[in-house]
Request: fold
Amino acid sequence: MSGPLTYMGAFAIQPRDTTCHTILHAAHDAFRRDLDRLVAAATAGKGRNVHVRAGWENFKDLFVVHHELKDRMLWPRVERAVGGRRAERAVLAEVRADHARIGPLIGRVDAVMRDGGDLLPVVRELRGALEVHLRHEAVSAWPLAESVLAAEEWEAFAAEASRRCEERTPLFVPWVVDGIAPIERSRFLTSLPAPVRELNRVMWEPTYRKRRLWSV
Reply:
């Protein structure tokens, strides 16, 4: 069953095509959705519910992978491509500053969940920082990458991403479509290869739903 999973890495090869943008934006929306769910749970005093904690752990896992791909594999390529151009390097510095802010906020949420305290303000601060970061990526950093990287650089990035993410594909696909609006669900799923869609329908999504992430 491992063959179809390798399709996920191919999505990064054509950075300007609809598929790549669809998947990028869908992942960003899923990160927003998860933190909105955590805000709602914390507001209701249920932020430490077992399924909420499981949803939070799933969020962290996918968020770390998402940003490791870019920090270790994509942005260094962009940095080499822009050379000493100050404006372009400032865009990358902004993204790194966002990461430097988000990491400690995730740690603070972990600490409050573990040790007690008021969860809501910490989660709201993290949600705000995430929004700023995702907007920076979508508006500035990703267009910069598209403008400076040659096709062979995208292909190399795709190959590395495929190796790094292959085992998480059965988690990623159903996570993205969890609670998504029908039109967005259709757009995302139809951007995937048919074997991946079928695996998601038959195996991945039913397994994901049994986890009851974020239920209170």
The two ends are 34 Å apart (CA to CA).
